[in-house]
Amino acid sequence: MLLMASHYELGQMKSVASVLKILTTKYPQKKRYWMQLSGTYMELNQDKNALSALEMAYKLGLFEEEKEYLRLVNFLAYQEIPYRAAKILKDEMANGNIETNQENLERLASFWQQSKELDNAIDTYQTAYQLAPKTKSQLKIARLMIQAKQYKAASKFAATPASDASRSQAAELQYIRGMAFFELNQPTQALKSMKKAAQSDSMRQVVSPWINYLESQG
């Protein structure tokens, strides 16, 4: 330990890492060595090694606090491994090690979205939305539903704006409904929604071509 401290004081981080690697091998159940090793690799800009040390502490069952689990899943997502981040976050929420609140559900949904797991992302965003209904979240979910070809669900979910919706946000929800109805081969409903969206200056230019096309098909 004195050797490691002297290396640290001298700024010899590679030597600090070498000592910590020995300590983690000799005392694998000592969480602080894994965390220190991860932090040292971070200082050396060796992010992959930093993540490996953190993951090893997790696999050994050494984590005790929510912030440790969150540090791991956020690091995984940062390293562009969002699917593993989502799996761990979901598991540890189920185990009670991470609180199932609106913030963490949003985090989980974003990991699913980054993983291109759109159905999981939509389901999780909706669960978070039910805890705190905000139009910003409603729009995100409705757009994802269109992207995932969940047109019927999108038409229903966008029907009633959240209580904090601005005029332009309500109009965008109508625009999304219009696109959903169009994909569902319901041109009358699509036109009705597009015309409602056009009542907002912010959406008029976007929906005008849709209105012209739908009216020409009538």
β-sheet strand percentage: under 5%
The topology string of helices and strands comes to: HHHHHHHHHHHHH
Note the gap between the termini.
81 Å
Mean pLDDT over all positions? 94
Low-confidence stretches: none
Q: Which structural class best describes the helix and strand composition?
A: mainly alpha
Describe the biggest sheet? none
Percent range for helical residues? over 70%
Shape: elongated
Number of strands: 0
Question: Helix count, per DSSP?
Answer: 13
How much is the radius of gyration in Å?
A: 25 Å
Describe this structure in a few short sentences.
This protein is an all-alpha fold and 218 residues long.
Describe the structure.
The structure is a single chain. With 218 residues, this protein is mainly alpha-helical. Among the domains are: 16-62, no CATH class; 154-217, no CATH class. The protein contains 13 helices and no strands. It has helices at 2-9, 13-26, 31-43, 47-59, 66-78, 82-94, 102-114, 118-131, 135-147, 151-157, 167-183, 187-197, 201-217. The protein is elongated. The mean pLDDT is 94.
